[in-house]
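User: We ran a pulldown and think these components assemble together. Before we commit to crystallization trials, I'd like a predicted model of the whole complex to look at. Sequences follow.
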Amino acid sequence: MTAETVVAARGISKTFGKGGVTALQDIDMEVGRGEFISLIGPSGCGKSTLLRLIGDLVEPSSGEILVNGKTAHRARLDRDYGIVFQAAVLYDWRTVAKNIALPLELTGWSRAKRAERVAEMLKLVELEGFEKHYPWQLSGGMQQRVSIARALSFSPDLLLMDEPFGALDEMTRERLNAELLRIWAETGSTVIFVTHSISEAVYLSTRVVVMSPRPGRITSVIPIDLPQPRTFETREEPRFFELVTEVREALHASGELVGADE
Amino acid sequence: MRSRIGSAAGRVAVLGLVLVGLWALWEGYRKLWESTGWTRPFPVNSTTMPHLHDIVGALFDPLREGEPLLARYLFDAALFTAKEAAVGFAIGATIGFLLGALIARFGVLQRGVMPYVVASQTIPILALAPIVVVGLGSVSVAGWTPKDWMRVSVIAAYLTFFPVTVNTVRGLRSADPAAVELMESYAARDWSIFWKLRVPAAMPYLFSAFKVAATASVVGAVIGELPSSIQDGLGGWIINFNQYYALEPENLWAVNLVAALLGISFFLLVVLVEKLVVHRPPEQLV
Amino acid sequence: MTSLAEPYVERRTRKRVRKWGPALVVFGIGIAAWQWLLPALGIERYLLPPLSDVLQAFWDNRSELLSGGWITFKEAVGGFLLGCGTAFLLALVLARWRPLGNALMPYMIAANAVPIVAFAPITNAWFGTLSPWSKVVIAAVLCFFPVLVNTLRGLTSVRPESLELMRSYAAPQRTVFARVRIPNSLPFVFTALKIASVLAMIGAVVGDYFGGSTEALGVQIVSAVSLAQYETAWAAILVASMLGIAFYASVALAERLVLSWHPSVRAGVE
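Assistant: Here's a predicted model for the assembly, 818 residues in total across the polymer chains.
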């Protein structure tokens, strides 16, 4: 593991409850600095669980995870990552600006610095002018942008995203995908992104990690060699469709593999 | 199966713990206050805070030599009060449901009547109890005068009808518009939509109201009995023992205990019916 | 229904009439019935004296009624503050130590079903019949359980993702409470406070039925009834009613101010 490895997972397994459901089995994964990794797989394959293991929101049954060279637990206490959920999870009683400033308040930033950073973040997600709005006044897509701004407000190295655009319509999704790539380029962070959508995974990532149905294993890792920066035209290139097909076939193969064993 | 027996045993254990805890708090408070002689918030002695076992013991003592146990009298009184409360609850719930259904159906009633339904509850009916119960005694309809206990039922009915009305309106309206459209696509008649969709959707709201109303009916019945010198119910006994409190404080406490059990039983009865009729996931704290 | 060609003021007036018209009509009918119809039907003045008589009785006795009302109001407010305050604190404790809260929840809901008012003779024995404290305690206990149950529900009905977010910030429990659980509980708390305001008033008045200072409103009601002065009794009840509405309205106003961010307040829903 080099200094450029942000996340290293070795032999990770997770079983819920005594003699219960095995969500993940023997996961080995390395994520380098500045990469954009997508986790994709059928429902119940444990991709969200894996994300939460990396974030120390769940404990592994076996194996270890190192984030930035420390234990996942230490990394969480040091606030090395920001997390975005499928639901925006904004607080109704706080304005947009105060929602974004929440983690900064918790880490004891001064009022002046908070205001400065909030302004930067709003510019980053292109929501300038919405500081005093309340979450219910915003559309779903805008709420998610606030959620992303909040996650990035304290400039973590690592961004964990659990199907953040899953609840949005396709057009908004594609637009936010492009924005996310722009933000990723500007901040230079490492992103681990869970999704159901093959085209989204291919469009966004540097590598796509394909997982099998429960118990979740990593069945293949597909490097995406599409050029950066990616634009709307990227989605129409032949290489894009080839990669989408490759990922789709990897998903089917992982599914059939389990079927054949039975 | 094992886990179900386990959880039932667990709940009994918790009940035991709670009862023991309450007993310990009571006796502990007594001991502490008596030994230090504090008089705030009130002086503690066997008159102001009889021993718990004395209170329970009073239930199993006869009032006078050779007479049945106090518990027997109080049980009969509780049944009497329960009758008043139950009749009142039934009347109030029926009126409330009908009124609520009409209001939900006809928007103009919502605007015209609902403000008064709400305002009716700001009139403290319990404050009105003396007037209502005494006054109704002089009303006669076609030569029939309501009996004592019926007048008390009126109080219980009044306290019941408001929560039931409000929650009926909310509940009937709470049906998912998509579900209503589905029914309409089946060319279902209004009546069917009402019974097959809206009423089931309203059940959780209704039972919420029933729980509040059950409690209120018992309170209303007890209070209603006070001014009208009705001897047969718990209210009568409260007045009775209030007069002799200095001599035999345990008796008043015993009546309160019985009244509390009555209130809780009504409530639990509604909870039981709800469990059978409505299928809702249990309340979980996060 | 409304045409955009109508001038704005006319449109607004029509909307107002449509909204309030039916209620005013019913109000008018109600007053007329009270004043003329009921006596015509032979309803004894025991039940409902004509409105004019009640108002006359109010005017004649206004100083006793109003001072009595003030005394009772103070008892109600005292009980409200005592009961709601302790309930809120206990709810915080039970939300912090969840197993305890879970185990006790059913008992607190059941305890709400106990007729507390029957306890008034005992508080009279504790504090003396004439003391306001005996009524304050009754009012406080009446407020306690609804506020406790609702506050606890509000503190614990937080989405799991919200708690995960706080975990990702490694936030300590007291921060989670201050920033998430307590703000989340405020709508629930205010619903309970509104209920409690009505209960406190009722507790203070009815507590007097078992005996209290002769100036208190509840005592005035009972003695008026016993002297068959029903007009006075109704006048006293009107005073109690007005005070109850005023109390409720002030809590509702506080709710509008504190919860100005809440969608239901914003939309003007009840």
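The interface with chain A takes residues 159, 161-162, 164-165, 167-171, 175, 179-180, 183, 186, 261-263, 266 of chain C (CB under 8 Å). That may be worth checking against your pulldown data before setting up trials.

User: Thanks, that helps.
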